Amino acid sequence: MVASRNEERLRKATDEMKKNITSPAELDHMQCNIRKEEQVQNLISTTLKRFGKLDFLINNGGGQFPARAESFSLKGWNAVIETNLTGTFLCCREAYNQWMNDNGGVIVNIIADMWKGIPMMSHTGAARAAVDNLTKSLALEWAESGVRINSVAPGSSIYSETAAANYGDPKIFAYNIPKIPLKRLGTVEEISTSVCFLLSPASAYITGETIKVDGGGSLYSTMIFEVPDHKKSKAYTWKDDEETKSKL
Ligand SMILES: CCCCCCCCC/C=C/C(=O)SCCNC(=O)CCNC(=O)[C@H](O)C(C)(C)COP(=O)(O)OP(=O)(O)OC[C@H]1O[C@@H](n2cnc3c(N)ncnc32)[C@H](O)[C@@H]1OP(=O)(O)O
Ligand SMILES: NC(=O)C1=CN([C@@H]2O[C@H](COP(=O)(O)OP(=O)(O)OC[C@H]3O[C@@H](n4cnc5c(N)ncnc54)[C@H](OP(=O)(O)O)[C@@H]3O)[C@@H](O)[C@H]2O)C=CC1
């Protein structure tokens, strides 16, 4: 079952996938806004009615807008937190309560390269870091039910049309290439094969982990953002601070 909000895009995507499926697996799609609790409950129960089981859950839905943190309205902040953190939580909870508690299963959460912060997208950085931590807690709580849960963190380097449109510049991903040790963008296949690995028995001994698929970008400098030159940081020394010294 493939789910998101936009029916037309869903139909197009599933039609394309059906053409490429070589296994006897069936495929269906369903509208669901993961920010709405009842819609998530309905997605999982409908999936169970349609297919009779739920072996895997992949939480890939996500999104944000670029802006400085001081300009966020509460509505904008909540929209991003609900999409990236609360939506993921709701899908995990419903999959567990409706099926995986009794039958086991595997969950993979897609997050992002937020290890050094994400300037201009701090809301999503906070939400993705929270999902990284949620993954660890759920791995411990749900291990006894035979549930494994892991995350995949793509670098800021996997071209997507929606992302380029969202950021208003089709070249936005290419700007990152100099900051990626492997000196190229990543491919969608390089993300999806990591997800397949985590869903497969080949990863039977891995839970609570996050795999970074970022060409080494998270080890290197922060993407795109430069801190402007300024003189706002005052050094602290004993010599210059007699007043503080006298208080100690
Ligand atoms: C430099 C970068 C390096 C970028 C470097 C590259 C890094 C890439 C790393 C990550 C890549 C990806 O994730 S790729 C995937 C990207 N895809 C997307 O982001 C999908 C598009 N985004 C979204 O869906 C949205 O961002 C999101 C807010 C979450 C949901 O939008 P909705 O319209 O459904 O939300 P609503 O509930 O209606 O709330 C909308 C409110 O959000 C706020 N809002 C929405 N867009 C806004 C905007 N452009 N500027 C300010 N505020 C905005 C306003 O307060 C809106 O309220 P009003 O004022 O009342 O309207
Ligand atoms: N591209 C990149 O470089 C990177 C991507 N990522 C993350 O990987 C994931 C996939 O990214 P990508 O394919 O590039 O982005 P897309 O924007 O193409 O995909 C995001 C998907 O999330 C769905 N979605 C968004 N909000 C909701 C919602 N409230 N309920 C249900 N579905 C929702 C969208 O479908 P619809 O609009 O129909 O609801 C869309 O299919 C996202 O989580 C993204 O943030 C992370 C790092 C880098």
Automatic annotation (TrEMBL):
<keyword id="KW-0444">Lipid biosynthesis</keyword>
<dbReference type="GO" id="GO:0019166">
    <property type="term" value="F:trans-2-enoyl-CoA reductase (NADPH) activity"/>
</dbReference>
<dbReference type="InterPro" id="IPR052388">
    <property type="entry name" value="Peroxisomal_t2-enoyl-CoA_red"/>
</dbReference>
<keyword id="KW-0576">Peroxisome</keyword>
<dbReference type="Pfam" id="PF13561">
    <property type="entry name" value="adh_short_C2"/>
</dbReference>
<comment type="pathway">
    <text>Lipid metabolism.</text>
</comment>
<dbReference type="InterPro" id="IPR002347">
    <property type="entry name" value="SDR_fam"/>
</dbReference>
<keyword id="KW-0275">Fatty acid biosynthesis</keyword>
<dbReference type="InterPro" id="IPR036291">
    <property type="entry name" value="NAD(P)-bd_dom_sf"/>
</dbReference>
<keyword id="KW-0597">Phosphoprotein</keyword>
<dbReference type="GO" id="GO:0006633">
    <property type="term" value="P:fatty acid biosynthetic process"/>
</dbReference>
<keyword id="KW-0276">Fatty acid metabolism</keyword>
<dbReference type="GO" id="GO:0033306">
    <property type="term" value="P:phytol metabolic process"/>
</dbReference>
<keyword id="KW-0521">NADP</keyword>
<keyword id="KW-0443">Lipid metabolism</keyword>
<comment type="subunit">
    <text>Interacts with PEX5, probably required to target it into peroxisomes.</text>
</comment>
<protein>
    <recommendedName>
        <fullName>Peroxisomal trans-2-enoyl-CoA reductase</fullName>
        <ecNumber>1.3.1.38</ecNumber>
    </recommendedName>
</protein>
<dbReference type="GO" id="GO:0005777">
    <property type="term" value="C:peroxisome"/>
</dbReference>
<keyword id="KW-0560">Oxidoreductase</keyword>
<comment type="function">
    <text>Participates in chain elongation of fatty acids. Catalyzes the reduction of trans-2-enoyl-CoAs of varying chain lengths from 6:1 to 16:1, having maximum activity with 10:1 CoA. Has no 2,4-dienoyl-CoA reductase activity.</text>
</comment>
